[in-house]
Amino acid sequence: MPFAAQRIGLTGGIGSGKSTVARLLVGRGATLVDADAIARQVTAPGGAAINEIARQFGSAALTASGAMDRDRMRLLAFNDPAVRRQLEAIIHPLVSQESSRQYSQAAQAGSSCIVFDIPLLVESGRWRQQLDRVLVVDCSEATQIARVMARELGRSGWTREVVEKIIDGQASRAQRLGAADICIYNDGLSLEALGLQVAQLASRFGL
Ligand code: ADP
What we know:
It is built from ten helices and five strands. The chain has helices at residues 18-27, 35-42, 50-57, 70-79, 81-108, 121-124, 141-151, 160-169, 173-178, 191-204; strands spanning 6-12, 31-34, 113-117, 133-138, 182-185.
């Protein structure tokens, strides 16, 4: 019997360094299932969510190329929780379905550790039962804001106010830490030091 693959749920607030940790784990041999990338895929031109988005929100929700207009919908969703729920009800089931498909494929291919990068793991509750352990990347809110402002420099719509609103709309640090089996405190830490912590974790994950 082959060993079952370990299923690690990776989460963290925006700017925590979650994607960086995901990349480092992949560098150590983990297979990544990226919920955000899947959400982008289903909202790209011809994606599985596009018809329903156009039906419920009208063609103004799409760009000229037929993708969901992400910046526009993000702003609408922030200003109206009903819009946010409506949009999530379209996109989340499609993301779950595709994540399961990618997981089965990786497990069948013999992957020993599958990392689910799930920004809303804590918020949406339904993921926990599919995971063996939850890894949370944590940092202070000031660090989150500084990192996101630097990363998104020059992109329209990414004001400090918007970043603060995104953080307010996400689970609190305490909620996230409450859901964690393992935590990386990625604050005041060089990228090298972060890499060392991830290397130690990777060996615990059988990588
Ligand atoms: P998230 O996926 O949580 O939004 P990212 O992994 O994209 O966050 O990190 C946000 C930004 O901060 C990126 O530009 C990344 O390179 C940088 N970053 C993350 N952790 C560190 C660190 N320990 N030292 C320096 N820069 C970091």
